[in-house]
Write a structure and sequence with these properties.
InterPro entries: Aminotransferase_I/II_large, PyrdxlP-dep_Trfase, PyrdxlP-dep_Trfase_small
CATH class: Alpha Beta
CATH topology: Aspartate Aminotransferase, domain 1
CATH architecture: Alpha-Beta Complex
Structural class: alpha+beta
Largest sheet: 3 strands, antiparallel
Protein name: Aminotransferase class I/classII large domain-containing protein
Helix content: 40-55%
Number of helices: 2
Strand content: 15-25%
GO molecular function, one term: pyridoxal phosphate binding
Pfam families: Aminotran_1_2
Length: 70
Amino acid sequence: IPIKIGENEDTFRFWRELYDNGVYANAIISPAVPPGQSLIRTSYMATHTDEEMDEVLSVFEKAGKKIGII
């Protein structure tokens, strides 16, 4: 699932916050995407529990607020 962030720097900062908090995702930046359209790509499996998904969402919220994109 892609999550559009925008600028490369914000995308890397967001990715690092996720990684540091145990959430693995891929940062996709230019030239793979047009400038200003960088994103985080996530992957989920049917084996992920509701509790794991809640934790991922919590980490996303905290990271987004920390770097100022939420």
